[in-house]
Structures are given as C-alpha cells and as structure tokens.
C-alpha cells in the first residue's frame, strides 16, 4: 500500500522508517496521506492530520487501527502474505522452506522466490509454533518438511541439510528445543 507524507523533514525521516518497517511504500501518487498540522490537505484521498507534539499518538493510532487490520497471516488457511519486488503475493506455508532475518527485514524462502515478510522473526516463531516450523538460530526458522538430513556438528550444534541443498546450522542455544521438537 502506498502512503504520501506531507510534513517537515524531521518527521518525514521518522515516519518513512516507521511505514517501511510495516511494508508500506512512500509515494507522491498515494491516495492516503499523513499530514503534519499546518500543511495543505489534498482535495482527494484520505488524509490523517497530526500535530508534531503528538507523534507518539499517531504511531499508536496507526499500529492499532490501520496496521493491525493488515493481517498478513491467515491461521485457518495456512497462508502468509509476502512482498516480491513491487507486488504482494499469497504464499502457502507448505511452500516455505524457511524464514530468515537479514538486514532489519525478515524474508521467506520458497523453491523459486524470496519474499519480504512484515512480521518479525519472534512473531513468526509464536504464530507458527504448531505448523511444523522451528527456530534453529537467532536468524532462522525452518520448515521441518524440507529437512533432508540432520548431522551432529561441533560443540553441541547440528547441521541441517535441506532438500534444496541449502545447509543451515542449529545453534547450541536452539539445539535442545530442536531435538525435543523432533523427538530425538
């Protein structure tokens, strides 16, 4: 979704970071506007006017009202929404090999694409606890259906060899939970 910002540079940087972290695009052509008090209000579209002294209330409002309704995970149907290039796609959980955190973003990897995901890794860990996904280190959650081989590794760690020839390390901190999850 695109949002247009009409505000001073100080607030623009903060709001851009906030919006991008929730997978929104900043665009001058957007029909939804966040406008600092005192700036002109466009005649068309939806405008939310905020006062700089109440930026914290704007952030709370956006998180609770708008972004909470932008659910990207559907528990009933086993699907999640991911961004691939400039569009959003619905991804079946069974097609996801792993979730990986990298450079302040979370990505899901399928056999042919890498999607940017809105949720944080700890949120996915909670949401997917009973869906065959397990956290294996501080930056990865793997789908157990794609594990081909588990190799004991150094210092209590494990090495996972996946069906797509990718190899991932289960860190010592997560090895015991991983073994319990698989009944090892």
Taken from the alpha-carbon principal axes, the silhouette is: elongated
What percent strand? 35-45%
| Main sheet strand line-up | 10-9-8-12-11
Largest sheet: 5 strands, antiparallel
Low-confidence stretches: none
Helix percentage range: 10-25%
Ends apart, CA distance between termini? 44 Å
Give the topology string: H per helix, E per strand. Answer: EHEEEHEEEEEEHEEEEEH
The total of helices stands at: 4
Mean pLDDT: 87
CATH superfamily of the largest domain, called what? Answer: LytTr DNA-binding domain
The CATH architecture of the largest domain comes to Beta Barrel
Structural class: alpha+beta
Number of strands: 15
CATH secondary-structure class of the largest domain = Mainly Beta
CATH topology of the largest domain: OB fold (Dihydrolipoamide Acetyltransferase, E2P)
Structural domain tally: 2
Radius of gyration: 20 Å
What does this structure look like?
- The longest helix has 12 residues, at 9-20.
- This protein has 184 residues and is an alpha+beta fold.
- It folds into two domains: 2-69; 73-182, Beta Barrel (OB fold (Dihydrolipoamide Acetyltransferase, E2P)), CATH 2.40.50.
- The chain is elongated.
- It contains four helices and 15 strands.
- The protein has helices at 9-20, 55-66, 121-127, 172-182, and strands spanning 2-6, 25-26, 32-36, 46-50, 73-74, 79-84, 87-92, 98-102, 105-109, 114-117, 133-137, 140-143, 147-152, 158-162, 167-170.
- A five-stranded antiparallel β-sheet has the order 10-9-8-12-11. Strands 2-1-3-4 form a four-stranded parallel β-sheet, with helices on one face. Strands 5-6-7 form a three-stranded antiparallel β-sheet, with no helix packed on it.
- It starts with a strand and ends with a helix.
């Amino acid at each position: 979704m695109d949002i247009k910002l009409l505000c001073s540079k100080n607030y623009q940087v903060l709001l851009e970071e906030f919006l991008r972290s929730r997978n929104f695009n900043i665009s001058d052509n957007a029909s939804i506007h966040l406008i600092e008090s005192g700036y002109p209000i466009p005649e068309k579209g939806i405008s939310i006017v905020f006062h700089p002294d109440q930026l914290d209330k704007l952030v709370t409002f956006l998180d609770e009202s708008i972004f909470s309704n932008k659910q990207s995970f559907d528990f009933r149907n086993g699907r999640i929404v991911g961004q691939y290039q400039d569009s959003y796609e619905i991804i079946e959980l069974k097609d996801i090999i792993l979730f990986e955190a990298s450079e302040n973003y979370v990505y899901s990897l399928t056999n042919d694409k890498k999607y940017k995901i809105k949720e944080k890794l700890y949120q996915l860990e909670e949401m997917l606890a009973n869906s065959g996904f397990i956290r294996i280190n501080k930056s990865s959650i793997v789908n157990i259906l794609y594990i081909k081989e588990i190799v004991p590794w150094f210092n209590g760690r494990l090495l996972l060899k996946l069906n797509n020839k990718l190899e991932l390390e289960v860190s010592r901190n997560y090895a015991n939970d991983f073994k319990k999850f698989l009944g090892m």
